[in-house]
Amino acid sequence: MNLKQMVGIEAATHVTDGMIVGLGTGSTAYYLVEEIGRRIAEEGLSITGVTTSKATEKQALGLNIPLKSIDEVPYVDITVDGADEISSDYQGIKGGGAALLFEKIVASNSKKNIWIVDESKMVETLGKFPLPIEVIPYGSQQLLKKFEEKGLNPKLRLTADNERLKTDSDNYIIDLHMETIPNNKVKQLASWLDTLTGVVEHGLFLDIVDTVIIGKGTSPETINVSR
Ligand SMILES: O=C(CO)[C@H](O)[C@H](O)COP(=O)(O)O
């Protein structure tokens, strides 16, 4: 079993009958969704899923997981999602799979958030992984210029075919290649990004995660984050 599968299956043990479950996006969350599908089919688990991307929606429908949109549920009991980086103070970068907008909407309406990662995602400071910013196409060149002027090394994300990548909401992603974001500067950066017109959402997920499940060696490590 690989580390991503290990943490996906472990996270599924936090899911019980009757829950409304946020289903994350990416190659790690994939295994969580598979395991929930298996438990529905084999054990009669009864849950409602809320997906965070079109890709996860397609996977969940294929597994006969009952789904509702975030607007059809009063709240989400628990959301399980991957992450691109988690700092030593448990702040995160997400959006490597371009699903940050729906992921943040679902996460911020969840009573509990679990992140599942292999140990390579655990870092001292964020920023080695480029920080994804979802922007409206109109005015995106101006935002690129603004980020450039600030020395944030922005790059418009392209597809494998060299087209501008479009998110599930038809926006663009600008990745900021900053190399490092000191832990004591992360909130300041997030607040500044929040002020920019044309920025729909950014990949800094701050004070959101409650539990981190890390895949390492032969068994996962679970860390409950106290804030
Ligand atoms: O934020 C995400 C998608 O927008 C993913 O959760 C993140 O990129 C981690 O993905 P993976 O598990 O494939 O490494």
If you had to describe this structure to a student in words, what would you say it looks like?
This protein has 227 residues and is α/β, with parallel strands linked by helices. The chain has two domains: 3-122 and 206-224, Rossmann fold (3-Layer(aba) Sandwich), CATH 3.40.50.1360; 131-200, ACT domain (Alpha-Beta Plaits, 2-Layer Sandwich), CATH 3.30.70. The chain is built from six helices and 13 strands. It has helices at residues 3-12, 29-43, 54-62, 100-108, 140-149, 186-195; strands spanning 20-23, 48-51, 76-81, 85-86, 92-93, 110-118, 131-135, 154-156, 172-176, 199-202, 204-205, 211-215, 221-224. A six-stranded mixed sheet has the order 2-1-3-6-12-13, with helices on both faces. A four-stranded antiparallel sheet has the order 8-9-7-10. Helix 1 crosses helix 2 (29-43). The longest helix has 15 residues, at 29-43. The model has no long low-confidence stretch (mean pLDDT 97).
List the helices and strands and how they pair.
Blueprint: H1 3-12, E1 20-23, H2 29-43, E2 48-51, H3 54-62, E3 76-81, E4 85-86, E5 92-93, H4 100-108, E6 110-118, E7 131-135, H5 140-149, E8 154-156, E9 172-176, H6 186-195, E10 199-202, E11 204-205, E12 211-215, E13 221-224
Parallel strand pairs: 1-2, 1-3, 3-6, 6-12
Antiparallel strand pairs: 4-5, 5-11, 7-9, 7-10, 8-9, 12-13
Helix pairs in contact: 1-2
Bound molecules: ribulose-5-phosphate (5RP).
EC number: 5.3.1.6
Binding site for substrate: 25-28, 81-84, 94-97, 121
Function: Catalyzes the reversible conversion of ribose-5-phosphate to ribulose 5-phosphate.
